[in-house]
Design goal:
mainly alpha
Amino acid sequence: MKWKFLVSLAVFFFCGISIGLWVGQKTALDNALKVACRPAEPQELDSFYTNVLKVSDEQKTELTEIQQRYQNKRNHFTNRMHQANLQLADVIEHEGYESDKIQPLVSEIHAAMGELQTLSLTHLATIEKVLDQNQAALLKNNAVMRLRQN
C-alpha cells in the first residue's frame, strides 16, 4: 500500500514539473521580449524629441547631428560584439565550452559592451547640453526608466 502512495506521489510530482516547464517555455520568451531594453529606432527618437521633450527646430537639427555621430560609433562596438560572438560560436562548435580560446573572446565581448555603455552615457551628456533644464530632466528620467527595465 505504501509503495502505491509513493508511486502516485512521484507521478503527481513529475506531472507538476512537466506542466511548469511547459508553461515556462510558452511564456518566458514573450515576457523577456517585453522588458528587454533595446536601442530606440530613429522614428522613436524623433517622436521622443518632438512629443516628450518638445525641442525647437534648432535643437532638433543639433540633436540629429549628435545622433548620427553616435550611431556610427555605436555600430563599431555592436560589430565588435557580433564578430566576437561569431568567433565564440565557432570555438564552442569545434573545441567545446572549456577551450582556452573562450575567455579572451568573452573578455572582448565584455570590453565592447562596457565601451558601448560609456559611449551611450557620454552621448546622453552631449544631448543634455543642447536641452533646457526641464527637457534635460525628462531625458534623465527616460534614461533611468529604460535602464531599470533592463
